[in-house]
């Protein structure tokens, strides 16, 4: 079975977000095993980015898709295609969402693909829910499911 992992900084505090993530995690289970690795949100700015980035790097061992404001905007179809190509060579895809101050260049250098979901800024916890929906959508597209229509 395919595997996907979300490596992210911080814990979900709002129930409606965790409920949405649980729902999409259940739906994704039809296509892949999804795990979520939550790292500790560090205080401060510059030091926090360095510490969080180092922690993120310690978790990366497969194909990495980084969500970053400096990333390329892609469509859901392009995400699906990128994931399917990655699965030809890798057993797992790791999606990375940094902390509120982002990530440093060491994480960008490790990423196989750097994307963004538009020019707008989302709260990091909500971004995790949006990412889960897009992962489900990508698998649905690849499977020819009517969900995407």
Task: Tell me the name of the CATH class.
Answer: Alpha Beta
N-to-C terminal Cα separation, in Å?
25 Å
Number of helices: 5
Q: Describe the largest sheet.
A: 5 strands, parallel
Query: Strands of the biggest beta sheet: in what spatial order?
Result: 2-1-4-3-5
CATH architecture: 3-Layer(aba) Sandwich
Roughly what is the average pLDDT, rounded to an integer? 95
Could you estimate the helical fraction of the residues in percent?
A: 40-55%
CATH H-tier superfamily: SPOUT methyltransferase, trefoil knot domain
Number of beta-strand segments:
5
Task: Write the topology of this structure.
Blueprint: E1 2-9, H1 15-28, E2 32-39, H2 46-59, E3 63-73, H3 76-87, E4 92-97, H4 105-110, E5 113-116, H5 124-143
Parallel strand pairs: 1-2, 1-4, 3-4, 3-5
Helix pairs in contact: 1-5, 3-5
How is this structure best described in words?
- The chain has one domain (2-144): SPOUT methyltransferase, trefoil knot domain (Alpha/beta knot, 3-Layer(aba) Sandwich).
- 44% of the residues lie in helices and 25% in strands.
- It has five helices and five strands, in the order βαβαβαβαβα.
- It has helices at residues 15-28, 46-59, 76-87, 105-110, 124-143; strands spanning 2-9, 32-39, 63-73, 92-97, 113-116.
- A five-stranded parallel beta sheet has the order 2-1-4-3-5.
- The protein is globular.
């Amino acid at each position: 079975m395919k595997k996907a992992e979300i490596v992210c900084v911080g814990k979900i505090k709002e129930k409606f977000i965790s409920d949405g993530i649980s729902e999409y995690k259940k739906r994704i289970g039809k296509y892949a095993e999804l795990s979520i690795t939550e790292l500790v949100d560090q205080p401060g700015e510059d030091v926090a980015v360095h510490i969080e980035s180092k922690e993120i790097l310690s978790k990366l061992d497969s194909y990495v898709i980084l969500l970053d404001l400096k990333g390329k905007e892609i469509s859901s179809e392009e995400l699906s295609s990128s994931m399917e190509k990655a699965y030809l060579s890798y057993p797992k895809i790791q999606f990375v969402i940094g902390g509120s101050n982002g990530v440093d260049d060491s994480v960008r250098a490790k990423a196989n693909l750097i994307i963004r979901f538009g020019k707008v800024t989302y709260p990091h916890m909500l971004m995790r829910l949006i990412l889960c929906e897009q992962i489900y959508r990508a698998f649905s597209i690849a499977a020819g499911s009517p969900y995407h229509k």
